[in-house]
Write a structure and sequence with these properties.
15 helices, 24 strands
Length: 442
């Protein structure tokens, strides 16, 4: 079957019949009509429009039979107010997008920062950005290579960074700096046509998206943010691969570039920090130092590779790190909490010529102090790291989890039901979640 460019596809009647014989597990239904002769016009060219549904489905009123006509999602309305579970019209994917039946969604501090008003974001919005689920629909005119890569019924994990695949940065392999993700999703709460996919069932009011709006029964995800999840990996524990582990991998592999024998300190060993410990161990780091203020988290850190632990309330973390490293400081320090105080600890913990990697988000406008003379004279490197590269790295993380190099089951310390989403974020805010919590949706 021959196809033209990604956003333009011409399928003849003969070709359609041939593909239906080959792809017996799918049924292709025309958006405009069941007939194989009608066409729509896009960009001045006459093209056929197809949408892919799971077997035993058809197009009725724009929603595939076999899918419900509505779904539920958790809405953030205003800072410091609880989430509410609302009914939504079934979201519909567009070109290059995939509709996911969400199975699990991680509980992350980034959502909590948003809910507390630490940074501005378009609202109301559905939160949640660390998901696993099942493919149930492809957007119309989606490239057949994507359809084949993510067939209906396949299990997937989604990264919170959702690259467009076409902008200046994506074309250079720097997915984490995707222009459309920043300009549309982060700035406007939409996907890359400038529109949301979520509308309240009762009023049709648009509700915006924090990333893909994953704390919902279904969500629409740009295909470049997904990776196949093998049947051997569970939905719930694998959700953390899309943010906690994904963020840690970006920090350790791309920002810090950890090498065998490096000494590493991780300041803040929650979901992201504990993942940093695991990846440092996998990369062959020697001294791996966990710094936190909760003994339970520090005890947990030993299971993820920490060779030393420091309670920063009981000891001076900077001095203790220097003591452990023979007075030099570590090769690499990672700040995974997002506080001005820990920013200072991070920069002061590295040796001369060392790397201080900043991962934790904080309040808008927060300032971290830095000794400029030491930075200049001793070649201290301060590096920001937002996450990994979805198209390159997410499949690697899936493989590392599948082979046991990453202990994702041990990293998930608590599970919640969908209806307990508010309690999950309350517990996170109270500091009572030791590792990572995950909300099981369906």
């Amino acid at each position: 079957m021959a196809f033209s460019a990604m956003f333009r596809r011409v399928i003849t009647k003969t070709q359609s019949q041939h593909s239906l014989r080959l792809l017996t597990s799918r049924l292709f239904i025309r958006d405009t009509n069941i007939s194989t002769t009608n066409k729509i016009v896009e960009n001045g060219a006459s093209v056929n429009s197809y949408r892919c549904y799971s077997a035993q489905t058809s197009s009725v009123g724009g929603v595939g039979v076999g899918l419900p006509s509505y779904m539920r999602g958790a809405v953030f309305w205003e800072p410091n107010k609880p989430l509410t579970i609302e009914d939504f019209r079934m979201p519909r994917p567009k070109t290059g997008e995939i509709l996911i039946k969400t199975k699990a969604c991680g509980v992350c501090h980034s959502d909590l920062h948003l809910m507390k008003g630490d940074f501005l974001y378009t609202r109301p919005c559905v939160v949640g950005h660390e998901i696993t689920g099942e493919v149930v629909e492809h957007g119309p005119l989606t490239d057949t290579r994507i359809v084949k890569r993510y067939p209906i019924g396949s299990h997937v994990v989604g990264a919170f960074i959702m690259p467009c695949g076409n902008c200046f940065f994506c074309s250079k392999g720097e997915d984490e700096l995707c222009e459309d993700f920043s300009a549309y999703n982060r700035a406007k709460g939409t996907l890359y046509d400038g529109e949301t996919r979520l509308f309240l069932r009762s009023s049709g009011k648009p509700i915006f998206l924090y990333c893909m709006g994953g704390l919902a029964e279904y969500c629409v995800v740009p295909a470049h943010a997904l990776s196949i999840l093998p049947d051997s990996l569970p939905y719930t524990e694998s959700a953390i691969l899309g943010c906690a582990v994904f963020t840690a991998y970006g920090a350790m592999a791309h920002a810090a570039v950890v090498r065998p024998g490096d000494s590493v300190a991780v300041i803040g060993v929650g979901g992201v920090g504990s993942s940093c410990l695991q990846i440092a161990r996998a990369f062959g780091a020697s001294d791996i130092i966990a710094v936190d203020v909760q003994d339970e988290k520090l005890q947990n850190a030993k299971a993820f590779g920490a060779t030393h632990t420091i309670n920063a309330i009981q000891e001076d973390a900077i001095e203790k790190i220097r003591e452990i490293t023979g007075g030099m400081g570590v090769d690499i320090a990672v700040e995974a909490l997002g506080k001005p105080e820990t920013f200072v600890q991070c920069t002061q913990s590295v040796r001369e010529g060392g790397k201080a990697v900043m991962v934790g988000l904080t309040q808008t406008g927060a300032i971290g102090e830095l000794d400029i003379n030491r930075l200049v004279r001793r070649k201290i490197k301060v590096i920001g790291s937002y996450g990994a590269k979805p198209r390159q790295d997410l499949p690697k993380l899936v493989r590392l989890a599948e082979t046991g190099f990453l202990n994702i089951s041990g990293a998930v310390s608590r599970k919640y039901k969908f209806e307990e989403a508010c309690q999950a974020f309350h517990d996170l805010d109270q500091g009572s979640i030791v590792g990572r919590a995950v909300i099981e949706i369906s």
